[in-house]
Design goal:
alpha/beta; Aspartate Aminotransferase, domain 2; Aspartate Aminotransferase, domain 1; 3 domains; 17 helices; globular; transferase
């Protein structure tokens, strides 16, 4: 089956109830994933590639297929995720790619880091989930570890599964503590897509179809502390309470946008002045990504609440959390069931997170990110001088970096060119003016140099 864009089904295939077939389908994939990799047949590999495409069209979302380079840029079988290690990915048919996407910050320790995988496997043999009644030691211990890692007097926390859940929890905590309903966030900011966190997002494409969202949320330009103070001052004058200011230390989805150096210190001063909580969304910047353990560490600022996700689970198990001070957390104590989850902070996730912290510190991943980021930026400076009509800007901190292009069209040509040269990046058909370079913090200099060679080849191939 040729998987060109015009082969995307225009109608959903009927799917009647068939329990026997459901069991057969489940068993076939279980058998495949439990088969030794070298013994998986070529026929089975082709079956996976074909049915994955069909199943996305019929059971997930046909729209994904129109925007994925892994479908639109391949000539025969769509690129189908199957195997990864370190900074390399291999699809089910054996095609190998350099991973410069890093799962949007998920793979800070690399794909399948052996120490993290080993910890999860060991816990799996002991207990994969909680009893829901006994006290769970891994969750309690991980909370203590994070309390020791975070700046200032951050001490208490709650674990969940995704970054958006962490932001939702932080918003609830802020409202409960302050008794106010309003929030300030930033234009082009990204905090998740559940209804609460979506209210904070600074992009109309996600917000407008779902309005009205939470009341009392204002967006201001990122990096503009005066704008934050103006909103807080106005809100105070009219008695409109603001519970918190929610900001990414460095904007990730917007394309590795770094604020002015006085921005975070001023946010801290302004929030103190107006008795408003400062909430740092560290879902993408946390645990070494930007060259410090946390993004706010670049400016020596302690927020009131911090949100974590992505890399926290070591790229092995989904894991997130939000943490705050003992003073703020006190409001959660009268009814500790105000915010709960069945699977958040489960033993497998906590084992992964604890192992991830040891890897981060033992291998000094923040330092690696800082040094490799500077190395990559120095190389892109040369490329920008050579191809100024293609590369408009290269920015970011650590290994949260981005190429910025004059137009989406040029950006997509770069993203497409890199894909054809087997480099995975974050550019899509509709949003390619900024393409992130966000590899594992463990990525080798050899792989970085090979990526840079392929970027240079891609730039050279583009006609303006």
């Amino acid at each position: 089956m040729t998987l060109e864009p015009d082969t995307i089904p225009t109608t959903i295939q009927p799917c009647d109830r068939n329990v026997d077939l459901a069991r057969q389908e489940a068993q076939r994939m279980v058998d495949l994933i439990t088969t030794v990799e070298a013994e998986v047949s070529d026929e089975d590999r082709r079956w996976v590639a074909q049915t994955t495409y069909q199943n996305f069209a019929n059971h997930i979302n046909k729209g994904f297929l129109e925007y994925r380079k892994s479908v639109t840029e391949t000539n025969d079988f769509a690129l189908t995720d199957w195997y990864g290690e370190g900074s390399m990915l291999r699809d089910v048919l054996g095609r190998e790619y350099i991973d410069m996407l890093g799962g949007f910050g998920l793979y800070s320790a690399g794909i399948r880091h052996p120490k993290i995988v080993a910890a999860v496997k060991a816990q799996l043999d002991r207990s994969p989930q909680y009893s829901q009644e006994m006290l769970d030691p891994l969750r309690a211990h991980l909370a203590r570890v994070i309390a020791k890692l975070t700046p200032g007097d951050i001490q208490y926390g709650f674990f969940a599964n995704s970054g958006t859940e962490a932001v939702e929890g932080a918003m609830k905590l802020a409202k409960l503590y302050t008794g106010r309903k309003g929030f300030i966030s930033t234009l082009s900011g990204f905090h998740g897509k559940t209804l609460g966190s979506l209210s904070l997002i600074g992009k109309n494409v996600y917000r407008e179809p779902l309005l009205p969202l939470l009341e009392g949320v204002r967006q201001v330009p990122f990096g503009d502390a005066d704008a934050v103070e103006m909103v807080l001052k106005s809100a105070k004058m009219v008695g409109d309470g603001i519970a918190g200011v929610v900001v990414e230390p460095i904007q990730g989805e917007a394309g590795a946008v770094v604020p002015p150096n006085d921005y975070w210190p001023r946010l801290r001063e302004i929030c103190d002045k107006y008795d408003t909580l400062l909430i740092a969304d560290e879902v993408q910047t946390g645990f070494g990504r930007t060259g410090k353990i946390f993004g706010v560490d670049h400016w020596d600022v302690t927020p009131d609440i911090m949100c974590f996700g992505k890399a926290l689970g070591g790229g092995v198990v989904a894991m997130s959390g939000f943490f705050s001070t003992a003073k703020i957390w006190k409001c959660m104590e009268p009814n500790p069931f105000m915010h709960t989850t069945t699977t958040g902070g489960n033993p497998l996730a906590c084992a992964a997170a604890l192992a991830n912290v040891t890897v981060m510190l033992d291998e000094d991943l923040p330092r690696q990110a800082a040094e490799k980021g500077e190395y990559i930026k120095s190389k892109f400076k040369v490329l920008q001088e050579k191809y100024p009509q293609i590369l408009q800007e290269f920015r970011g901190k650590g290994l949260l970096l981005a190429m910025v292009f004059p137009t989406d069209e040029i950006g997509y040509k770069v993203a497409s060119g890199l894909f054809s040269r087997k480099v995975l990046t974050a550019g899509t058909l509709t949003n390619a003016r900024s393409i992130r370079i966000e590899p594992a913090l463990t990525v080798s200099y050899e792989i970085i140099d090979e990526m840079l060679t392929r970027v240079a080849d891609t730039f050279a191939s583009i006609d303006i």
